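We close this part of the discussion by returning to an individual protein. The amino acid sequence and the backbone structure tokens for this protein are reproduced below:
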Amino acid sequence: MEHLKSLRDFIAALDAIGEIQPIDKEVDWRLELGAVARRTYELRAPAPLFNTITDIDEGFRVLSAPGGLSAQPGLTYSRIALALGLPADTGGAEIVTALADARRREPIPPVEVDRAAAPCKENVMKGDDVDLLKFPTPLIHDGDGGRYIQSFGMNIARTPDGAWTNWSINRMMLVDRNRLACLIPPPQHLGMIRAQWTERGEDMPVAVALGVEPGLPYVGGMPLPEGEDESHFLGAYFGEPLELVKAETVDLLVPATAEIVIEGYVSRTDLVEEGPMGEYPGYPDRGSHSPKPVLHVTAVTHRNDAILPVAVAGAPVEEDHTGWGLPHAAEMVHVLREAGVPVSACWGVLESAAHWWVVALKPSGHEDSGLGSKEMAQRVGEVVFGAGKLAFGVPKLLLVEHDFDIADPAQLIWAFASRAHPEHGEAHLAVLVEPGRPAPGPAASDPVGGLIGFGRCLARAKTARRASFSRQARWRGRRPRSGQLGDLAVVIPGVCRSTTLEKLGFPGFSALAAGTRG
């Protein structure tokens, strides 16, 4: 297992297998960058590394699609595999198993390194010198409420008593040179920690680390139980500690090799309008446009020629699905193992935008457990939907016997269509969409009935009601406006710019978009 300890090591590893596409042509941060990135997800083209960005000083760069899928035969999950130290040709189910197996290892705490050994300290801005506007923060979608600097980095916060440090990913929108608007849902771990600081009458210290070593976002997307430190788990996974360094103005440790680190305090009183944003289900998150807590920035450190990672949320498959789906499935395997369920594997169906989840039982599972199909479905549902943060992201659960590749959507559709009985192949468990989580589709905060299908395959969870929505509201900003499959037409105020992926350096991908991929 190779532990890549920086984003730059990760980029070099991707480049070695043809999964990076440098773009030297100037690209505008206003919609154009997001549109190009979105098209690369759809075509499974190499991850774009934008080297020249309109109105941004030379040297600052953007990497998008770091966790996207690949069109290269045998390398579908290569970006996720390399990020987690596995061979580039590792399959999705094998990645999930590797993460799940590490949950039974002893945690390994990080080590603190001297600032001289920390590249994130190459440039330091404090106080009045802080200027977030120098970074190439994109306006990602048409219709977004602002520019999102935090879409694939780590938010680091610690409880007031110092007992628990949490590493998570929550979106943050640029307000001005020294303020960010933060989405911090109260049920999530970051929200729980903020509540403890608020109870003390204090603002929450936080560090936002962007461009971290590539494994960190995957454990940040893993629903570890309350009180467990994600950095300790990643140490256990790699068998060696992460390297951290003291922040400048808050009492936290941050990744030594991070490209950018933003430090400050999330106010317990100050609010500012945030959102909407095109989100991971593939719809505008219309209900999220509201006043949100303000992060007052006290310091920023960054590497020379810093690289900002950007995830372009939307229709699958992108980092919200891979960075959440695979680690979530791994935790599902772990909790089912611990509960004595004869689980063979679990999977988050990436193409479902993290709305379908699969539990595959060992073929001998019924005999080993002594449970019939209906009882097994009930047991699996009780364990998964009762597993705290794990249940937070599981609206629909499919229960199958593991006699096909559950990571192959074609095989899964076949099994579901041919095996799930429409009358007695379901088990319903009442659950709710938790506050702060975008509900499936456009209907926010609708109750959802957790459903376990059984027999040989299982089924769905049904929303209690669905709001009507227009086609424009559904797709606006989630995909680039395309005249032809291989073309991009990006509307920028005062500018009309059109291009093709080939003009940006992606050889052959306009032809691929036209349907010539073998």
In short: Residues 432-451, 453-487, 489-496, 511-518 have pLDDT under 50 and may be disordered. The domain at 339-463 is CATH 3.40.1670.10 (UbiD C-terminal domain-like).
